[in-house]
Amino acid sequence: MKKYLSLVKFSHTVFALPFALIGFFLAVAAGYPFQWKLLLLVLACMVSARNAAMAFNRWLDRDIDAQNPRTARREIPAGVIPSGRALMFVILNGLAFITATFFINRLCFFLAPVALAVVLGYSAAKRFTSLSHFILGLGLSLAPMGAYLAVSARFGLVPVILSFVVLCWVSGFDIIYALQDTEFDRLHHLFSIPAWLGNRNALVLSSAVHGLVIGLLVWLGVTEHSGLMYWIGALVFTSLLVYQHTLVKPGDLSKVNLAFFTLNGLASLLFAAFFLLDLWKQAAA
Fold it and tell me: Could you give the CA distance from residue 179 to residue 251 in angstroms, rounded to a whole number?
């Protein structure tokens, strides 16, 4: 089990899971009943879809990873997990995801193959488009909207805005993460923003995309007349976004992992905590 948790970088679930909880409780705050069973099904969907996506990425990239010194020690190229078992892990998690949606509602069940295609499709994207970072962002952006749909079976403006927040946020920090492989990607004809634009311009684009996140958060707070807790959460989230851009320079990538995992994981958890606290305070008022 430990090997498979490492394969899918289970700790990285912290990026999208808090936004799924926001989507879930947004629907509850809108008047839909809270159900523990439904919450557990949403969590099962999150974990199984992400497991399938990450394991598929590792399986599809196994030959590429073996050639890259940074990734050669990953479980499949290192021989820790056979590629056939990794693929079976993908299939089982994909089936678990679709099964869980069946017990949620008809809309989620019908949309499940589309969602699975998006999260799995990211893995192949680097072979034909430099916009692969945005496809990853799109995959994770399904979290708040999907959780909202699980409770309400209908679309809503706030979860849609939050989905765009996640799309821009994830795409921006994935561009930063890809800076580590700029030369490798160019040498092996793989597509990425850094390989296309160079590290300096890639950082500029990442900053611009994260600027959109800030604009979306302000728009959401103003249009929804959000309370103090929301604005504190948005300020913390924004501050951590800005701080990560001070850590990474075109010629100094030594703090990429700090910017990628630690700060973004913290940003997601804190924003969700303040957002949910604001929902609770408004419901109690």
Answer: 10
Which uninterrupted H or E stretch holds 19?
helix 17-29
The token pair that represents 191 in the structure block = 């597509």
Taking the C-alpha atoms of residue 77 and residue 258, their distance in angstroms, rounded to an integer, is 25
Region of residue 174 (left: phi > 0; alpha: psi -120 to 50; beta: else)? alpha
Average pLDDT, the chain: 94
User: Could you state, in order of their start, the residue ranges of all structural domains in the chain?
Assistant: 2-284
CATH architecture assigned to 2-284: Orthogonal Bundle (1.10)
* Length reported for the chain: 285
Cross-strand partners of 252: 249
- Give the list of residues 6+ apart from residue 22 with CB closer than 8 angstroms, or none: 144, 147, 162, 272, 275, 276
Distance CA 192, CA 189 (A): 10
Buried b (16+ CB within 10 A) or exposed e, 202-234: bbebbeebbebbbebbeebbeeeebbebbebbb
pLDDT at 253: 87
Low-confidence residues of the chain: pLDDT under 50: none
- Predicted confidence (pLDDT) per residue in 191-230, tens digit: 999 999 999 999 999 999 999 999 999 999 999 889 999 9
What is the pTM (predicted TM-score) of this model?
0.95
